[in-house]
Structure formats: C-alpha cells, structure tokens
C-alpha cells in the first residue's frame, strides 16, 4: 500500500519560492544568536527563545517552500504536538524518559511543559529526517528497506542531538532529573532512560514524518536543514569543550552525533565537488 504524501503543489511555485531565501535568513539569524549565547554566559531566556523560535521557523518555512504547506503543518502537528504529548506524559508519569521536572526558567508552560520544548522538537525533527534521507540515499536503499533504515537512523540522529542539549539545559537549571544515574560515559547527571525515551519518541515521530513528508523535489533543496544539522553538531562540540565547561560531553557527543554528522559531511563535500566539476565541463 502506497504511503500518503503531503507535498502539495510543486515546490518551486512562484507563491512559495521566496520562502527558501527567508529560511536561509532565519538559519543565519539562528547561528548569530547561538554564537552570542556562550559569549554572553548563556542562560538568558531571550536568547534561548530566539534560538528555538528562529530555527523552528526556518525548518517550517523550508518545508512549506519545498514540500508544500501541508508538509509544514504536518511537521508542526507531528513533531510539535507529538513532542508536547510525550513530554506531558513524561512529566506526569516518568515514562518514557524517566522522572524529571521543568523549572520556570523556560517561561510559559502548557500541561506542565514549557512552550519552547515542543518548538525544539519542531526545529530539529526536520533536519534529522532530511540528513537521514541523504545518508539512506547514499546507501542506495529503496522501498521498505529505506523506510525501516530511515526510521531507525532518523531516531538516532535526533536523539544524538540531545546528548548535547540535555546537559546544557540541566546545567542552566531549566529542568532536573530525580534519578540521574546510570548515565552515558562523560555525560553526568543525565540518565540513560532519557535517551531510551528519546529513541522511542523519535522513532515514532520520524516514522510518521517520513510517511507524510515527500522526498526532495529538487536535488539540492535540502541545504537548509542539512546545514542546520551540521552547524548544530560542530557548534555544540565547540560550545561544550570551550564555553560550557563540559569537555567530556563534547567528546561523547562528538562521537555519538558524529556517527551521522561526519558521513553526512563527506557526502556533502563530494556532492559539492561533483557539482563544481559538472559546471566546469
């Protein structure tokens, strides 16, 4: 049975073409804010809000431009709504992440969850799926095999980001774990149950998104989410190693998220060289 796709109208229709440059502007603004974050000591709510809102907007606008408005709405509903539900259940029951509580540091809450949290799911779910599709495409998989690998690898790609995110947010007092052990080597105070929960939620989220969001309509349309993922990787390694006083998190995260980011970088460099070679012929 063929999966339903929400690509909508052709991605390069005149009505949405302008959204791609705007997505780049939002991504550039995100990078600027994130550079300022450690330089100003971090922990300020306005910078945190700006970073999350800008990147979530960039992801959503990019989807609207390349796959249609329906795909963008699907991202908001599945990643944002799904993330809110998962987090609300987690805060209330301890499943699937473990027992934790949000402080008031991230602002307004809905169902015990800061509004910024589902926005964070939105901002990275699309980059995680986009880069996973790049990797799966390089494996030359198709059909059911591609779907299965995309679901598992996409869940890993999204969860790997939290190896950096969770220690940063805990250190800044935005949430706290009741039982922080056992934990990953080098990632103290974050329980393994958190990452198990992330893998479960991310697997469900990526599986559904992969079904309803169409594949690339043009060969290089996904540069925005790919750049976002690679920037997140390299900037997170640098921030934890130099600014946040967490060199062991930088090392562990570099290895875990690098499983996705480094092969992706190789693919992108080769693709760029191929394009330049083709243009010169």
Automatic annotation (TrEMBL):
Keyword tags: Membrane, Transmembrane, Transmembrane helix
Segments forming a coiled coil: none
Bilayer-crossing regions: 19-39, 45-64, 71-91, 111-132, 144-164, 195-214, 226-243, 249-267
InterPro entries (UniProt xref): CruF-like
Pfam families: Caroten_synth
Superkingdom in the source lineage: Bacteria
Protein name: Putative membrane protein
Source organism of this protein record: Gordonia westfalica
Origin organism lineage: Bacteria, Bacillati, Actinomycetota, Actinomycetes, Mycobacteriales
């Amino acid at each position: 049975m063929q999966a339903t796709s929400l690509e909508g109208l052709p991605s390069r229709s005149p009505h949405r073409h302008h959204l791609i440059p705007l997505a780049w502007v939002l991504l550039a603004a995100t990078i600027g804010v994130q550079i300022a974050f450690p330089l100003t000591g971090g922990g300020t709510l306005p910078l945190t809000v700006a970073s999350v809102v800008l990147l979530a907007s960039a992801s959503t606008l990019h989807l609207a431009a390349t796959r249609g408005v329906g795909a963008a709405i699907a991202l908001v509903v599945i990643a944002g709504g799904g993330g809110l539900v998962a987090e609300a259940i987690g805060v209330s029951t301890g499943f699937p992440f473990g027992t934790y509580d949000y402080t008031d540091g991230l602002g307004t809450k809905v169902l015990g969850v800061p509004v910024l949290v589902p926005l964070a799911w939105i901002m990275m779910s699309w980059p995680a799926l986009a880069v996973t599709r790049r990797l799966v495409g390089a494996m030359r998989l198709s059909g059911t095999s591609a779907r299965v690998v995309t679901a598992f690898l996409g869940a890993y790609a999204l969860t790997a980001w939290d190896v950096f995110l969770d220690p940063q947010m805990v250190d800044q007092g935005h949430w706290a774990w009741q039982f922080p052990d056992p934990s990953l080597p080098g990632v103290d105070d974050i329980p393994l149950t958190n990452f198990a929960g992330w893998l479960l939620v991310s697997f469900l989220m990526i599986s559904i998104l992969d079904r309803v969001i169409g594949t690339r309509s043009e060969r290089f349309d996904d540069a925005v989410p790919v750049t976002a993922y690679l920037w997140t990787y390299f900037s997170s390694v640098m921030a934890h190693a130099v600014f946040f006083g967490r060199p062991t998190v930088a090392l562990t995260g570099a290895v875990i998220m690098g499983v996705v980011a480094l092969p992706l970088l190789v693919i992108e460099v080769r693709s760029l060289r191929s394009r330049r070679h083709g243009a010169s012929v």
